[in-house]
């Protein structure tokens, strides 16, 4: 019922069985042979302004050439819909599936770790220059520094063909300290079994990060 608002290949509906539900319901399907993802959530559980802010930020990243997910407009040319169903009202939108495999499933080398840091540094640089056109995201203790949701390994896909990373999840993004994202990324590297030598990976990560955005020696040392 929700999917009817977008174009899709009827032959691909079996893919809907491979859904995932957490804070959002996520369903894969296909259109013209390309995988797309339907995401929706109950209206009474999400703030519409925060979803709009998420989509605005994604559009900004896309306009800057950053490899984040790309949204797909509905049949009536809207990005975000409020859909009425017998089970309640839902906010819904669709995005194209990014290329690659989850970072945690790769052979996590120092080169990939450097890219991990580089892409986070680039994201922070773009975030520092971002001026929301309409909607301000929710803040934490009034810290007015934009930061996306932490880059955990399951939110990052490595495309071996293009040798790039693709980022998929900006839900629940907020204004926060950049160090939060750095700590979360490094914690994910250390605890997800990505590497045997964390000190080397830590150095590679910050080498990549500093290619795009500045970070103090104190933060690196700690």
Structure description:
With 222 residues, the chain is α+β, with helices and mostly antiparallel strands. It folds into two domains: 94 residues, Phosphorylase Kinase, domain 1; 121 residues, Transferase(Phosphotransferase), domain 1, CATH 1.10.510. Helix content is 31%, strand content 22%. Strands 1, 2, 3, 4, 5 and 6 form a six-stranded antiparallel beta sheet that branches. It has a three-stranded antiparallel beta sheet with strand order 7-9-10, with helices on one face. A two-stranded antiparallel sheet has the order 8-11. The longest helix has 20 residues. It is globular, with a radius of gyration of 18 Å. The N and C termini lie far apart (51 Å).
| C-alpha-based Rg, rounded | 18 Å
Principal-axis shape: globular
Give me the strand/helix succession: EEEHEEEEHEEEEHHH
Number of domain units? 2
Low-confidence stretches: 140-151
Q: What structural class results from the helix and strand content?
A: alpha+beta
Q: Oligomerization state of this entry?
A: single chain
Strand percent estimate: 15-25%
The CATH homologous superfamily name of the largest domain equals: Transferase(Phosphotransferase) domain 1
Q: What is the rounded distance between the termini?
A: 51 Å
The profile of the biggest β sheet is: 6 strands, antiparallel
CATH class of the largest domain: Mainly Alpha
CATH topology of the largest domain: Transferase(Phosphotransferase), domain 1
Q: Helix count?
A: 5
Determine the fraction of residues in helical runs and give it as a percent range.
25-40%
Number of strands: 11
Query: What is the average per-residue confidence, as pLDDT, rounded to a whole number?
Result: 83
């Amino acid at each position: 019922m929700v999917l009817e608002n977008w174009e899709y290949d009827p032959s691909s509906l079996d893919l809907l069985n491979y859904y995932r539900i957490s804070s959002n319901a996520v369903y894969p399907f296909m259109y013209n042979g390309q995988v797309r993802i339907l995401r929706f959530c109950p209206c009474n559980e999400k703030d519409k302004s925060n979803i709009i802010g998420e989509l605005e930020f994604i559009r900004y990243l896309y306009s800057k050439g950053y490899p984040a997910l790309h949204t797909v407009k509905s049949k009536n040319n809207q990005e975000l819909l409020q859909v009425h169903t017998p089970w309640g009202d839902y906010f819904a939108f669709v995005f194209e599936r990014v290329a690659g495999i989850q970072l945690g499933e790769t052979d996590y080398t120092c080169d990939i770790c450097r890219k991990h840091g580089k892409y986070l540094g680039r994201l922070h640089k773009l975030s520092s220059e971002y001026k929301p056109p309409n909607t301000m995201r929710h803040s934490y203790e009034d810290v007015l520094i934009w930061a996306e949701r932490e880059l955990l390994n399951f939110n990052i896909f490595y495309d071996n063909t293009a040798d790039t990373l693709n980022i998929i999840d900006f839900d629940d993004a907020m204004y926060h300290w950049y160090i939060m994202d750095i700590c979360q990324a490094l914690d994910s590297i250390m605890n997800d079994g990505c590497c045997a030598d964390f000190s080397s990976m830590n150095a590679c990560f910050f080498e990549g990060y500093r290619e795009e955005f500045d970070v103090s020696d104190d933060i690196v040392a700690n």
